[in-house]
């Protein structure tokens, strides 16, 4: 059962303060970042999903963390630009990627705040795993605009994250400016992080309303999405010439109404 903890004394905390605490959590917990992948078989299996997704060309990976996904992206890409705000996890990502790909010049790591950083170029694929749930709802429109601006014509956004079922494993907080959870590190220190458990159908509908062509499907307690932004001229998406933005769902894996 989900543990709900009210934070009535923190009602004046804003997004910036909550996000700063989130960054502090990932910096302090860099050495523990990979533990869920070691402990949860479903996460290890989820890594293989990348091999089935339309990753191609020049890839931008947002919130790359310790690089669990980066080598798999590099194996499918012409180049990878991996961005994260925490230098501690980037150091681990560099080491992991080097051990998998050797001295490949095709992977570049960038330390930057994703809420301030703007892509310097366009990419064929924008990929982010377990990042969308860390974006406060009021910042989602700006985030999706950044993703759209980063995509070359015909490019696709690919995203993987936790669905509502995973909330059972979290200590969910209430009374904060965004959906949040309380995380504890091995040393006993506690941090509040943004944690939005998106419903696959609601996310599909939201993106479609923004003009994206999108497909979101469930994989166990997680979801995997592939989306293409609306063209800048307001015409039909590249993948479906002459068609309105679609709201495609896998009939076997989409959540019930």
From TrEMBL:
Domain Methyltransferase: 59-155
Protein's GO biological process: antibiotic biosynthetic process
Domain of life: Bacteria
Short name of any one Pfam family annotated for the protein: Methyltransf_25
SUPFAM superfamilies for this protein: S-adenosyl-L-methionine-dependent methyltransferases
Annotated TM spans: none
GO molecular function, one term: methyltransferase activity
Keyword Transferase: yes
Composition skew (Low complexity), residue ranges: 235-245
Ranges in a coiled coil: none
Record keywords: Transferase
Compositional bias per record (Basic and acidic residues), positions renumbered to this chain: 247-257
InterPro entries hit by this protein: Methyltransf_25 (IPR041698), SAM-dependent_MTases_sf (IPR029063)
Name the record gives this protein: Methyltransferase domain-containing protein
Organism encoding this protein: Streptomyces sparsogenes DSM 40356
Lineage: Bacteria, Bacillati, Actinomycetota, Actinomycetes, Kitasatosporales
């Amino acid at each position: 059962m989900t543990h709900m903890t009210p934070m009535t004394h923190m009602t004046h905390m804003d997004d910036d303060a909550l996000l700063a605490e989130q960054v502090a959590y990932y910096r302090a917990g860099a050495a523990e970042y990979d533990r869920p992948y070691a402990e949860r078989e479903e996460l290890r299996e989820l890594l293989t999903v990348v091999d089935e997704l339309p990753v191609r060309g020049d890839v931008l990976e947002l919130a790359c963390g310790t690089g669990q996904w980066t080598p798999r992206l590099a194996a499918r890409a012409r180049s990878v630009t991996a961005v994260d705000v925490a230098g501690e996890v980037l150091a681990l990502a560099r080491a992991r990627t080097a051990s998998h790909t050797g001295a490949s010049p095709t992977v570049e790591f960038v330390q930057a705040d994703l809420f301030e950083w703007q892509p310097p170029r366009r990419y064929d694929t924008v990929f982010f795993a377990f990042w969308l749930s860390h974006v406060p709802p009021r910042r989602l429109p700006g985030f999706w605009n950044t993703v759209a601006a980063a995509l070359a014509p015909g490019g696709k956004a690919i995203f993987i994250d936790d669905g509502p079922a995973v909330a059972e494993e979290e200590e969910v907080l209430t009374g904060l400016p965004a959906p949040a959870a309380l995380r504890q590190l091995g040393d006993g220190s506690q941090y509040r992080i943004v944690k939005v458990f998106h419903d696959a159908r609601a996310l599909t509908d939201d993106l479609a309303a923004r003009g994206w062509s999108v497909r979101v499907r469930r994989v166990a307690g997680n979801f995997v999405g592939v989306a293409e932004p609306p063209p800048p001229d307001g015409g039909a998406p590249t993948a479906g010439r002459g068609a309105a933005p679609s709201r495609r769902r896998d009939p076997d894996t989409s959540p019930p109404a």
